Queue: 4 jobs
Job 1
Amino acid sequence: MWSEVLARFSKFPAQARVAEVLLEHGFQVNSAGAVVAGSIRIPDTEIAREAKVDRRAVDETTATILSDEMLKNFFSNIKTFVFLRDVAPVLGLGVIIITPQDASQIGIIEEVAQTIAEYGMSVRQAVTDDSYFSEDPKLTIICDTRIPGALIDKVLRLASVKGVSIF
């Protein structure tokens, strides 16, 4: 899907950078061509600064998005969400970040979640990086308690797991 989105911007590198910023942050483009997060409008100058492009490239990108049905459907439906990783320690939650052997392998989340459940722990949130968007995709799992060392050892022994870090 991402390759299809990028292909629509292949002749416009500044627009491609803007589209990447929109995607990274989960920003939508509304029917008026404004960049928004929910109902909050994001100024074009801030998008341009992040993408390292001129502000006019943001306007051109949103115009391109609205003129293409696939891009319009994609960017009008993308959503931001609360990712607990960085606040988990403040909340007394545990964070385990998994580097998979092969991110396209089926069942990685199931295998890791089952191992966590064996320790009587609950998964509060599981977030994976999409291998289309990330060169080094990770699986981040937020648990209801701190992560014990024995669990890390067991997760490291899973065939699908290349590495583990705790947060």
Job 2
Amino acid sequence: MLRILVGLIYGVFMLGVALAQDQSFWCPQWQADRPKEIDITGQIIELSFPVATLETEDGQQYLVRLGPWWFWARQGYNLQKGEWVEIRGFLKGRLLFPRVIHTPKQTIRLRDKVGFPLWRGSWSRGLGRGRFRGGWESRTPLRRGRR
């Protein structure tokens, strides 16, 4: 009887975990009042990782959250001061969380369609900084005595 009860509790727990796999599970405070996606075009007037300042043609300025420098380096992304860009992302006040940045030379992808940062990765995406295959630098787990 105890085994059945423990099995039932475990099953309910696993069902809850399976249902919670929505992206909002990872960032509940972000998802609670997530703004709509917008497009903004402008020029990068200041660049200092992890933030850039974007100025639109009408003079409005936005702080753009770029994410960690190691993610940019790993993806081969590059952004220059003075460059004109088109950003599709999420705006909260004057703070812009870009999902995609289009430059004349490349397309920079920083977040998925619901705003989840790609540098955070996951086991299923293989973008995380873990030590397992598909993770950071695609390393396999280290074994004792071998490097």
Job 3
Amino acid sequence: MRWARWLLAAIPVSWALAWLDAPSLAVFIAAGLAVVPLAAEMGAATESLAARCGPATGGLLNATCGNAAELIVAIVALRAGLVDLVKASLTGSILGNLLLILGLVLVASGRRQAIVSFNRCSQRRTRPPRPRPPSICRRGWRWCSGSRTS
């Protein structure tokens, strides 16, 4: 994150370029460079909050703050009456997250192991125990926890 701090100088540069009516491309490039350190700072702040709040609240914070740029674009577009733009932006975001992120995870894990599997029982053991009704659920819990006696 320290490498991106020098890009903070692009914030006043972008403001000055916009005020001086510079070419739109120059303003866009300066503003784009200014976003990089701000996003890095926001990511670091979210990670530190998530570490203090626990996994559930931390996940919610990461999901909310990770989409802050999309949220800002949606709010500005809605105020301008561009509902179709907001719909397209949200659809693109959802598809991008579903397809791109899932695809990257599958490719990365496939490079490491030939066969990748998900063990639902081990996932349940990491959560705190919650009240459950007797009978079938209790047998299933015993099976997942490793004691296969019925």
Job 4
Amino acid sequence: MNTKLKIFWWGMFIYAVSFCLVALGETKSSPGNQPLPGFACAFMAFILPFMHAQDALLHNMPFPFPAWVYIYILICGWINPVFIVAAVLYLIGSHLRTVAILRIVVLTMIPVTWIFAFYYLRTYPREGYFLWIIGMVMVLFSEEIARSFSSQPQVAR
């Protein structure tokens, strides 16, 4: 297996493990918030906008969040599906232009999680959050990372 694929699969492993670890911790200014594992963050960010839209459309209930928060939740919820599409396309080696665009999209979506989770929810990042980002970067940039390793001069022993 070449270096690029090793980095890709290690990145996917780290990405998957991050969902089992605590991603967000509570602060003193956010009482009642429990530490959230990565899978709960991903699930809630993906499902919550649909649940609230359904309540608003079918039951005439107002959105419980301001509009800007709703948009941020939508963006946070779509990071993982966009990443998975980019990773699959990258792995099979097709639509490389689309992969390049999706890499940029994923990277620009990450700061939205900072605003929503850290500012609005008043939480702080934990180990799962950092591993989630590291895993995505390793997968999306595995070729560049592998190239940087191969371009370093080898030390003779």
